[in-house]
Amino acid sequence: MSIGAVLAQLRADFPDVTISKIRFLESEGLVQPGRTPSGYRQFAPADVERLRFVLAAQRDHYLPLKVIKEQLDAADSHEAPAARLPRKLVSLSSPDGDGLPAARDFAQGREVRLTQEELLEQAGIDVRTLGELEQYGLVRAGAAGFYDPDAVLVAKTVRAMTEFGIEPRHLRAFRASADREVGLLEQIVTPVYRQRDADAKGRGDEMVRELAALSVTLHTLLVKAGIRGVTAG
C-alpha cells in the first residue's frame, strides 16, 4: 500500500502521526518499505504493524527510538519473518513493571480538557490533595481553568508515592528539576522550529519526543544508581 494508505490506517490509533513522521522512522531504519521501479514506497501489512509497534512504544512507554530499534533488531535476528515484532516491550524508564499509569490510558486525549471534577475522579484524589499538587507546582491548570490528561498521570503517580510516606511538598525538587530540563531542551529544539521548511515542525516535535524519552531514561537510571549506592553502603 502507499504511504497515504498507511497513514489512513494508523491515524485511528495515532492521531498525531504524519507522513513526515513515517518518512522519519524510515530514515532511522525502523521500517523498510519496498519500492516500485519508479521509486514510490510500497508498504506491506507487516510494515504497518511494525510502525504500530514503534508508535505505541513511544507513546505508551516513552522509549527512545534507539531502544526501540535495538528491540526490533534483536527480534529480527531471532524470530521467523512472520513473528518479528518483540513479544514484550522492555522499557528502560520502567524496567520492573512498577504499575505506574500508562500513557495509553489517555492516548486519545492530547486535546482533551478536563474539569476539576473529572481530574479528581480519574486520578482518585480529593480536593485537598489537588490543592497541594497545585501549591507545589506539580499540577497546573490551563488559562481557562481546565487540566490536560498529563495532569491525571502526575496526580496518579504522586498518589502512588504517598503510599510510601512521600508528601507533595517533598516533590518540589522534581518540579524545579523538570523546569531546568525544559529550559535546556528548549535551547536545543527552538532553532529547529524556527527553520522555514515545511517539515520543521515535524522535526521539532520528534526531537522533543526523543529528548523527553531520553531524559526520563537518564533520570531513572541515575536514581537507581544512587539508591544502589545507598543500599550498598
From TrEMBL:
Keyword DNA-binding belongs to the record: yes
The segment(s) forming the HTH merR-type domain are 1-74
Q: PANTHER family under this entry?
A: HTH MERR-TYPE DOMAIN-CONTAINING PROTEIN, REDOX-CYCLING DRUG-SENSING TRANSCRIPTIONAL ACTIVATOR SOXR
- Alphabetically list the UniProt keywords: DNA-binding
Q: Which domain of life is it from?
A: Bacteria
Do you know which InterPro entries this protein is assigned to? DNA-bd_dom_put_sf, MerR-type_HTH_dom, MerR_fam
Which source organism?
Answer: Amycolatopsis acidicola
Name used for this protein in its record: MerR family transcriptional regulator
Q: Looking at the keywords, is Hydrolase present?
A: no
Membrane-spanning regions, if any? none
Q: Name one GO molecular function term.
A: DNA-binding transcription factor activity
List, alphabetically, the Pfam families matched. Answer: MerR_1
